[in-house]
Amino acid sequence: MALSPAEDLDDEGMLDPLTVGRRIRQLRTDRGMTLDALAAELGRAPSQVSVIENGKRELKLGELQKLARILGVTLDELLSPEPPSKRAALEIALERVQRGPLYASLGLPAVPARKTLSDEAIQTILGLHDELRRLHEERAATPEEARRANVELRAEQRKKGNHFEELETIARDLLEAVGHRGGPLSQRVAADLATHLGFTLHYVGDLPETTRSVTDHANGRIYLPVRQATGGDPRSALLQALAAHVLGKQEPRDYADLLRQRVETNYLAGALLIPEASAVTFLKAAKDARELSVEDLRDAFAVTYETAAHRFTNLATEHLGIPVHFLKVHASGAISKAYENDGALFPTDVLGAVEGQIVCRYWSARQVFAVEDRFSPYHQYTDKPTGTYWCTSSIQGTASGSFSVSVGTPFAHVKWFRGRDTVRRQTSRCPDPTCCRQPDSALAARWSDKAWPSARLNSSLLAAMPSGTFTGVDLTEVYEFLDAHAPE
Fold first, then answer.
1. CA-CA distance, 146 to 158, in Å (whole number)?
2. Order of strands across the sheet with 335-340?
3. H helices of 368-487, where?
4. Domain named HTH cro/C1-type: which ranges (predicted)?
């Protein structure tokens, strides 16, 4: 049964240009028609037809209909999802492999599918690629599972503009229940939320090292540390514990569940610290004045810069119509957290994960570390392969080291932000390795055989994830702690 044009779709809901292109080539050669002859009939240059046959350009419906008439087939036949021959199927598979991130990461030259390249040679290349993929995935199965789950979750956040209406509603109802009328959330009101939800607060000096808080549902207690982490917010751990309770979170079943729990509890905690209604009023006024600023949002609601930056991404697209990206980057250049819905091209591994990847040294997230003034906000334009972006960055000190936190937007939207008049500008060609990852030839020639740096390995590089629990929490220590602190 022939498929209609609407049914000939690939996984992303688009016509597959590779299969269509190979079918056009097969039909042309079956009819003894040269590339020049088809180009003349179609009214195109031969080079343009070659691009079509190689699957490097999608065709409009009118072009497809004209090609079908020239080649003497129906449109359904032209758009059949099945490769036109066994050889074509091999060539399509080879082309897809070479366009993929795993092949690109190898730095190997492309292998053209010429007639002189035998079927056996293509099958060998495909087999080697499949085995390389298998070895890559087996090398660290547990981290791979976490990265895959993170990629899927980030795609969902992007689709929603990082705005979760159901969590905003829960936050609004909780704040109304304790009489909060807007503006910053005081520590007293945070404690009132705990009381409203049936908990008493207990600050202790012996909280288990693997925890930020411990909730005792049997006795209605929440245990929190007496001393806060460097650069932390004393309300955050409490609000995250309350959020987990309100959302009914249990021990996560797998890494996907763990990551979703963290995203949702962090989101709800942020929505309590920076209530939506107050924040949107504040941000819309700032946009009207063309004075949007993460620093102002931070100061208006008395939160950390990172919380303000996160919350800005929740509200900017939904309420201001501004696409944005967010980055938290360690001083080493490695990405800790990332989000984008503005087309910013983050570095990724072969699975599509960005966490742990190294940011281009010319991006604002790296350039800010070279500035001595760490009090003033840092603004920069960066010309990237996908366009020009403006970013604002700030450095945050933590117990794990220094991190830059950045919020950026495409050039078309920078008119709404304070700091748009900056003269700082950099050019980034990443992911082209010659941009900043490879030293220039003269420098490499001078030092390549005269230096041996001793790498500072991450402590988790060779370690397996903790067994028994996905979170890494020491349950024996937690249960002993609860026994010691439970009321008699």
1. 18
2. 335-340, 325-330, 401-410, 387-398, 378-384, 425-427
3. 441-447, 475-485
4. 24-78
The partner residues of 393 in beta bridges, in order of sequence, read 378, 406
C-alpha to C-alpha distance for 351 and 480, rounded to whole angstroms: 40
Q: Provide the residue range defining the domain that includes 199.
A: 165-427
Identify whether residues 126 and 227 lie together within a single domain: no
pLDDT tens digits for range 319-370 = 999 999 999 999 888 899 999 999 998 988 777 788 888 899 999 999 999 9
Inter-residue contact 365 to 358 (CB < 8 Å): no
pLDDT tens, 106-126? 888 888 888 899 999 999 999
- Decide: 75 and 324 in contact? Cβ < 8 Å: no
Could you tell me which of 174, 223, 230 has the C-alpha nearest to residue 202? Answer: 223
CB-based burial of residue 310 (10 Å sphere; 0-12 exposed, 13-18 middle, 19+ buried)?
Answer: buried
Instruction: Write the burial class of residue 178 (CB in 10 Å: 0-12 exposed, 13-18 middle, 19+ buried).
Output: middle
Structure tokens belonging to residue 308: 């303000």
Query: Do residue 223 and residue 90 come from a single domain?
Result: no
Residues 124 and 185 in one domain: no
The pTM for the full model equals 0.68
CATH of the domain at 131: 1.10.260.40
Tokens representing 158 are 């992007």
Residues 238 and 342 grouped into a single domain: yes
CA distance to 37, 62, 75, 92, per residue, from 33 (Å): 6, 21, 19, 22
Residue 298, both tokens: 């931070």
Question: What is the C-alpha separation between 137 and 479, in angstroms, rounded?
Answer: 36
Considering the domain boundaries, does residue 260 fall inside one? Answer: yes
Q: Which two tokens stand for residue 443?
A: 């420098």
Asked if 278 and 385 sit in the same domain, the reply is yes
The residues, any chain, with a CB within 8 Å of residue 262's CB and separated by 6 or more, are none
Q: Based on the fold, state whether residues 108 and 192 are members of the same structural domain.
A: no
Same domain, 203 and 109: no
- Tracing tokens 């941000």 back to the chain, one arrives at 283
